[in-house]
Design goal:
Helix content: 25-40%
Strand order of the largest sheet: 2-1-3-4-5
Number of strands: 7
Bound molecules: flavin mononucleotide
Distance between the termini: 12 Å
Largest sheet: 5 strands, parallel
Oligomer: single chain
Number of helices: 5
Structural class: alpha/beta
Radius of gyration: 16 Å
């Protein structure tokens, strides 16, 4: 049995939902899983875990600086254990941009950081127009209009492929 840590960065909760689904899947494989927000990570003894998984969503083209800062501070420790990273964004709803090697945000991120995660995943996120601030709703609808996505201001659409999340959970269990 491994003791696995999942650290996530979220704004609207979808990356937390995905992390919790991963926890469920990995626990079904007989492991112990702790899921914590990146804000709490400095208080955690990382050395106590056998494997570490990081997950973060994209907002206006970037993952949170908190996750980047965490990676840079703990790179050596991350590399000393089986590790993985997943990104959550809505560009990944497109079949040609849903794999780690062809998702532009993940690729740009990997070029920026000094850590090379052992396993990678990209998950499509969620759009929840009614819950956004007007400026964000306007901007996301504009981006969606440009990329032929949904623009109805009442739309709430979850693009996440939970089967894909489950497969990644099994991969993490086995890594
Ligand atoms: C203000 C805002 C900006 C976003 N910017 C992007 C973006 O640049 N590219 C993209 O693919 N998705 C973008 N998204 C979509 C989010 O990545 C998606 O909603 C994801 O599910 C958010 O995850 P979270 O709930 O864990 O924060 C944006 C969403 C919001 C609300």
């Amino acid at each position: 049995m491994s003791n696995i840590l999942i650290i996530y960065s979220t704004t609207d909760g979808q990356t937390r939902n995905i992390s919790q689904k991963l926890q469920q899947v990995i626990e079904q494989q007989g492991h112990k899983v702790s899921v914590i927000p990146v804000e709490d990570a400095p208080r955690i003894d990382l050395a106590a875990f056998d494997k570490i998984v990081l997950g973060a969503s994209i907002r206006y083209g970037k993952h949170s600086p908190l996750i980047t800062g965490f990676i840079e501070k703990n790179r050596a420790l991350l590399e000393s254990k089986p590790n993985a990273f997943f990104s959550v964004n809505v560009v990944a709803r497109k079949p040609e941009k849903c794999r780690p090697e062809d998702n532009p945000y993940l690729q740009k991120f990997l070029r920026r950081i000094s850590w090379t995660p052992r396993e990678l995943a990209v998950f499509a996120g969620k759009i929840d127009y009614p819950s956004y601030r007007p400026i964000d709703r306007f901007m996301i609808r504009l981006i969606m209009w440009m990329t032929k996505g949904p623009t109805d201001p009442q739309a709430v659409i979850e693009f996440t492929d939970w089967q894909q999340v489950e497969s990644f959970g099994k991969l993490v269990s086995a890594m």
